[in-house]
Amino acid sequence: MLYYLSLGGNVGDTREIFRVAMDEITREIGEIISRSSVIITPPWGFSAENDFMNMALIVKSDITPSEVLGKIWEIEYRGGRVRPQGVEGYSSRTLDIDIIFIDDMVIDTPRLKVPHPLAHRRRFVLEPICEMSPNYIHPIIGESIKTLLDRCDE
C-alpha cells in the first residue's frame, strides 16, 4: 500500500524532528519512496507565535492502516507531541503526522478517516503532495490534487 503522510510542526527544531521522524517511519512503517520539500505556512485554524513547517511523504508499507496509525502516534509522542486530554481545537506542536491517503482507499471509522476529511481544504497539505503526485485523484471528490490545490483558498 502507498500511504500519503503529512508532517507538520512549529515548536522546537522542526527540521531535525522531521529527520528523526522520517528515520523512524522508515524503520517502523516502510520505505519512503518520495518526499516533498519543506514549506512554511501560517497556523491553520488558530493563532500561534511561530509559523509551521510542513512536508509530505509517500511511504510504501505492507502493514495495516490501523497499525500505521498506532506507529504514527508513537513516533509523534517520541517527537515531543502532547495530546492533552479533553482539549479540543488546534495548538502549536513539535510534530503532527496525518495519514492523508492510502492508495485509493476510503476508511471511515471512529479512529481513522481516510482520505483525511480536511485535506482538500488545506493548502499546507495539498501543496507538498502536489509536488510529488499532482495527478493523484482524491478517491471521494474525484479530482486531482493539482485541481484541488488550484481551487484551495485556505
CATH topology: Alpha-Beta Plaits
Any idea what the radius of gyration is? 15 Å
Name of the CATH first level: Alpha Beta
Average pLDDT = 91
Low-confidence stretches: none
Helix content: 25-40%
Helix/strand-derived class? alpha+beta
Distance between the termini: 29 Å
Q: Total number of helical segments?
A: 4
Per DSSP E runs of 2 or more residues, the count of β-strands stands at 7
Shape: globular
Question: Can you describe what's shown?
Answer:
This protein is of the alpha+beta class. The strands form two sheets. Strands 1, 2, 3, 4 and 5 form a five-stranded antiparallel beta sheet that branches. Strands 6-7 form a two-stranded antiparallel ribbon. It has four helices and seven strands; from the N terminus they run βαβββαβββαα. The chain is globular. Strand 6 (107-108) and strand 7 (113-114) form a beta hairpin. It has a single domain, classed as 2-Layer Sandwich (Alpha-Beta Plaits). It has helices at 14-28, 65-78, 123-132, 145-151; strands at 2-9, 31-35, 39-41, 52-60, 96-102, 107-108, 113-114. Helix 1 runs antiparallel to helix 2 and helix 3 (123-132) runs antiparallel to helix 4.
